Amino acid sequence: MTTTQQRNYALAPLRSVLDNGARVIAKHSGATPAVTIHAAFEAGTVFDPPSQHGVSHFVSRTIDRGTTAHSAEEIADGLENRGISLAITVNRHALSLVCTCLVEDLGSTLATLADIVMHPAFPDPEVETRRGEIVTMIRQDEDNPAAMASEGLLALLYGDAHPYGRRPRGSVEGVERIARSSLQAFHAARFRPGALSLVMVGDVDAERAIEFGSRAFASWQAPPPGPALFPPVPAAHERRLRVIPMMNKAQADIAYGFTTIVRSDPAFYAYWLMNNIFGEYSIGGRLGDSIRERQGMAYYVFSALDANVVPGPLLIRAGVNPANVDRAIASIDEEVSRMANDGPTDEEFAESRQFLIGSMPRRLETNAGIANFLQMVEFFGLGMDYDVRVPELLAKVTPGDVQAAARAILDPSKAAVVIAGPYSGKS
Amino acid sequence: MKAATYNASVDVYEEVLDNGLRVLIQDVRTAPLASVWCWYRVGSKDEGPGLTGVSHWVEHMNFKGTTNIPRDKVKGIIEQYGGYWNGYTWIDQTTYTETAARDVLDRMLFIESERMANCLYDPADCESERTVIISELQGGENDPDQLLDQELTATAFRAHPYRHPTIGWLADLQTMTREDLYGYYRRHYVPNNATLVIVGDVDRKDAMRSVVQRFGAINPGEVAKSHHTREAEQLGERRVTVSREGTTAYLKVGYHAPAVTDPDFFPLQVLDAVLTGAKGLNLWASFRTPPPQRSARLYRALVDGGFASAVNGGLVPTEQPFLYTISVTATEGTALSAVEQATLAQLEAVRRHGITEHELEKAKNQLRARLVFEGDSISNIAHQLGYFETIATWRLVPSLRESIDAVTLQQVGDAAGRCLTPTNRTVGWFDPIVS
After folding, report:
1. Which of A146, A345, A402, B399 keeps 20 to 30 A from B230, CA to CA?
2. Domain spanning B2-215: which superfamily?
3. Residue B82 contacts A where some CB pair is shorter than 8 Å
4. Where are the domains of chain A?
5. B291 vs A32: CB contact, 8 Å cut-off?
């Protein structure tokens, strides 16, 4: 076991790599007598086997429904008698088990989590019950303009051949076909100690937390999972538009976007600032100022940047009255062009940079906030001192860098646009 | 100054300024931050006919510039310091918050003092915000569960103003005027109708000095008194069905439930934890973490039983008697009648037979744990002080744990017997029309 600790820094978490490859990170925080546990596996939806879309999500709904030693009921009783609520979430790259327990329950809670991830039984009745739930969730998504617009945009940007272009929960027909053996196979392939990043933040000494983590997971032996391989992201050559009519709805949802860069690109910090100025700062940055504040067209409009291990999307979202769809898209086009052509103003640039630096203590106030941050740091390999390096990384960015980032991706003639809602073509 | 007190048990300092502004300060030094919340005792229950939604619209207008904060400076006034700001309106309250570095506490207080006294209500801004709010309403109507909740509440209440949605009815939003908004603002935004809460890494004396400097000169006003009727006892089950195109069926069952100061309130919190898992008592934080509900009665009967993909209970502390609501999402292919039958069977069983000793202890453990978990940020701590002061008194906050500990098996059984009677319930269906 090798252990390193960054001292004299603000967060200064303790990081340890167990002999089996599991990474354990701990940070003491005495705000409450509780500990947040965040165990992430590289087992997100991008790892769904071809033709079995939705398996990762299905595993996230079933992995804690019984182990070889304990029934689903026993696991639930054991956690909930102590007030613990286990949330299992999945995104494109990670499947995460997250919960908060009282300090005195840390050891027993970790033991339960280890049992869940190492020995899930996927009992048939549980698989069938959860299948019904997933089908209902997919049907709910199909009745949700926001979900349909976002999923539709990713499909337009990435296409069927790329895992980013697929629906994370799969389709009803696909989920109906997923067998218990597929869940077991996915678990065997992706749940390995080398794919585990365990973060603990709370009122327990960091070294002691690492000991607890080691005790729970050190006996787990399995080779590391296969590397993640992704097809290239399709280049955009023209503007693409898709309308998903949902005439039973009151409001239309617009998703508008581009593909961007990988997180490890040195230009990331310029993109981060650009997105903040464009669609995050205050009520949605420039987009919010134009579409919500000045034109009164939308309750929400914003942009989100997801630079990842593959070039992730910059996603612009707005919910508007169907009569305003065309006007809202024209306004987004205008702001996209303005940012690319003119870049940020000096004032916008300075305020936005100050915001991103100044908001760090707030982002790192709660145990859950710190745990999320440390998982992100670990996933992208940013280093345990990343929290104190953020200011200098942002300080190196110039307004010219931000404009260059905008010019590189923001081009209305190459945008993908999806409208879902009571809109059939022209408003 | 008057009424300065210090509550040692939770380190809350309380002072009431001469103009009636109640100030609560709690020193919590876990991060170099301060959180400010300014609460007004005005919410959608205070709105009259034709003015539904005015409290919420006023909240929106109070982010649009003041005499001393130009419209274009509102945008970054706190964010340029890394801060966060927000506000919300609900049935009993309207509140505004900033959380930022402790060094900018005075700036946060300046913003709130401006908001209390000097908002502009530019006519063009009022018009522009009308369509923003209508967009917010229509976005909510896209969600069948939210639509059903609105219909259920309006059916359960006939007389009490809790019956109308906080966002308002569309017709009122289309016709309300700038004068309606500004008049409402002036009648309710006075220091003697407000509570200012400061929690964080602050020096109490310095903080009070800033508070007096920023708020001391604001004149008190005659607080507009709203006349609230008491909802008459319900005489029989009520039903409402929403028929719209959709993919999924939803069931909602609502029971008239006691206010936070009623002796039945905490026993019913325990009952809800037994039925659907403990949510906690922090409206600002509870929804961020799912309740521990896998072992809850309704989860096991409905979700594990294959009737539903989700079940949730809602019993929120309110000033006056509101609703205890059970919300169920039916699984694909399951008839709403079957979901309703299975749900009511469980509710009837607990009404008749109460809960077990083991369930009582588990529910208390869950509720106590939630209290700990929800105290993990200065924003959450400050929210609770202001929230409870606005609906009753902040002094309920330090005794929440005791209130939970004191609940007995008998009290839960009695409260269930009173609340879950068939004549006290309203049943709502969202029955999708397949297109």
Report:
1. B399
2. Metalloenzyme, LuxS/M16 peptidase-like (3.30.830.10)
3. yes
4. 2-217, 240-421
5. no
Residues of chain A contacting B295 with CB distance shorter than 8 Å: 73, 76-77, 80-81
| Residue in A43, A46, A98, A40 with CA at minimum distance from that of residue A375 | A40
Start and end residues for every CATH 3.30.830.10 domain found in chain B: 2-215, 238-430
Query: If 0-12 CB within 10 Å is exposed, 13-18 middle and 19+ buried, where does residue B227 land?
Result: exposed
Name the pTM for this structure.
0.94
Q: Beta B238-242 vs A252-259: how paired, if at all? A: unpaired
Q: How far is A225 from chain B (nearest CA, A)?
A: 31
**CATH number assigned to the domain covering B238-430:** 3.30.830.10
d(CA B346, CA A200) in angstroms, rounded, equals: 38
Identify residue A191 by its one-letter amino acid code: F
Please tell me which of the candidates A32, A79, A293 has its beta carbon nearest to residue B372: A32
Residue B334 φ then ψ, to 5°: -95, 130
Q: Do A140 and B247 touch (CB under 8 A)?
A: yes
User: CATH assignment of A2-217?
Assistant: 3.30.830.10
ipTM: 0.92
Question: How many A/B residue pairs have CB atoms within 8 Å?
Answer: 202
Taking only residues 285 to 324 of chain B, the set having a beta carbon closer than 8 angstroms to any beta carbon of chain A reads 289-296, 303-304, 306, 309-310
- State the Cα–Cα distance between residues A35 and A209, nearest whole angstrom: 10
- pLDDT tens-place values along chain A, 427 residues long: 555 444 344 899 999 999 999 999 999 998 899 999 999 999 999 999 988 999 999 999 999 999 999 999 999 999 999 999 999 999 999 999 999 999 999 999 999 999 999 999 999 999 999 999 999 999 999 999 999 999 999 999 999 999 999 999 999 999 999 999 999 999 999 999 999 999 999 999 999 999 999 999 999 999 999 888 899 999 999 999 999 999 999 999 999 999 999 999 999 999 999 999 999 987 789 999 999 988 999 999 999 999 999 999 999 999 999 999 999 999 999 999 999 999 999 999 999 999 999 999 889 989 999 999 999 999 999 999 999 999 999 999 999 999 999 999 999 999 999 999 999 876 5
B contact test, residue of A29, A248, A292, A372 with most B CBs within 10 A: A248
Q: How far is CA B306 from the centre of its chain?
A: 32
Using a CB–CB cutoff of 8 Å, tell me whether B70 touches chain A: no
Superfamily of domain A240-421: Metalloenzyme, LuxS/M16 peptidase-like (3.30.830.10)
